[in-house]
Amino acid sequence: DLFTTCAGHHWVHKQGWLDGDPCDNEWFGVQCGRDSAGLDTIVGLNLNPRGAFNRLNCELPESLGNLSNVRKLYFSNALFPSHITGSVPSSLQNLGELRCFYASHCYLSGPFPAFFAQMPKMQGLYFRHNSLDGVIPDFSKLGDL
Fold it and tell me: Distance between CA 22 and CA 16 in Å, rounded?
């Protein structure tokens, strides 16, 4: 539902989307790897890399929390920013493998998502140029951040 929710039909690069399995069909911006059982799984999303001109125009769906093996989520870039509104979905706290979340230069609002401070594998958080508010949690226990 990410493609539909984020106006994927307007993306410049959308190869493979809505065509079968994202790993078998090499959907643009979807990185795959193997899970602990040796099965293909989504380990990264980079839907708007520099030069792709894939402006996402949406609120991030709660269904992102179902990507249990995802390590990297990249939704925007400084040269061609996405227009992502609303708050960061609380379902992302279910992503125990998440290491990097990049949503700079978007239009996110609401409270800063404190659950990121409880994600022990987190290595990078990028929220520049948004309208998040509230208290930034203590990240000192995350040694790789």
Answer: 7
**Rounded (5°) CA angle 132-102-81:** 80
CA distances from 48 to 20, 54, 84, 145 (A): 21, 5, 12, 23
For residue 24, give the DSSP letter: T
Tokens at 88, concatenated:
């960061």
The rounded average pLDDT for each run of 10 residues, N- to C-terminus, in the chain (145 residues) is 93 94 95 94 94 92 97 91 95 97 94 95 94 93 88
Q: What tokens appear for 40 in the block?
A: 């293909």
Three-class DSSP category at 50: coil
